[in-house]
Amino acid sequence: QLYLRSRYKYHPKSDPLIPCQEAGLDFNPGDVLRVVSKDDASWWQAIKNVSGYKAGLIPSIKLQTRNKASVKQPHPLLLKEAILVCSVMTGKQLVVSQFIPHQNGVGNTHSPTYRPIVLVGPQGVGRNELKDRLIDSNPAHYGVPVPHTSRSKQIGEMDGKDYHFVTREYMESGIRDNLFLEYGEYKGNLYGTSLSAVHTVIQNHQVCVLTPYPQALSVLRCKEMKPYIVFIQPPTLDQLDTMGIPGDVAPSVRPKLTIEHELSNLVNRGERMEAAYGRLFDARIVNDNVDAAFAQLKEISFFLENDLQWLPSEWMD
């Protein structure tokens, strides 16, 4: 059987191409679709959320590909209503993912390996606050990769604990070979998080918690990592107005959210990030209250370790 997981909204009543709008299947990001018929080349029949009983029409992969190739400029429908179903855009290639159920540790007689939890969001939304709370809740279970740096070790620092202290040449070579998830330079020294450091946390049977820039998702989102990507979303401006300024926004960002311009800038950056990377997100948490947001994050972590999850079939051996 063919299962697909949607990363886009699709509303058949907004699709002028569908032969019968009433027969279309409405779905949202995260919905799992079970394809029950592929008899028609352009329109498949699918059931939403696997256990549903009513089948509806969805655009086939062939139709999606043809529409994408024929539209030189982005069509409003593709951006807002998203005809592209259950797919990931990589450059100009349309990569279609089938999904199969998976559970951490199932079929593994050794200690289970856990999927990394990746928190992304606009700077200032409170990702690091949530990461720190999660790790502090169980330091033996949650871990972070030890970063690399080219600077000299300072008094009291331990190699392999505070940083991996290496030469600049070593880091530059690793950067050229795409061995770093992300990196940067500060006061003449290089800093970065290596893929091997992430793997070390996973191999130690800990849940690796990461807060990278969204550009790193193209490297992280692979079968070796199997990350679960959570978008930490700022409240809307209307919600912020209701809450007051600074209201219940995460304490770590309160100093930045003291004027309307900063609030608007945070929300706009979140919207741009959602538009650019939203197809990659597995879950979303609106951080309008850090305690409530942390509770949601704990629920997600529990789900990842105890319930069946849907993974792209190409991620499974």
TrEMBL record:
UniProt keyword Zinc-finger, yes or no: no
Q: Which UniProt keywords apply?
A: SH3 domain
| Zinc in keyword set | no
Q: Which residues form the SH3 domain?
A: 1-68
Q: What SUPFAM superfamilies does the annotation carry?
A: P-loop containing nucleoside triphosphate hydrolases (SSF52540), SH3-domain (SSF50044)
User: Which intervals hold domain Guanylate kinase-like?
Assistant: 114-302
Q: Which InterPro entries match?
A: GK/Ca_channel_bsu, Guanylate_kin-like_dom, MAGUK, P-loop_NTPase, SH3-like_dom_sf, SH3_domain
Give the family from UniProt.
Answer: Belongs to the MAGUK family.
> Would you tell me the protein name for this molecule?
Guanylate kinase-like domain-containing protein
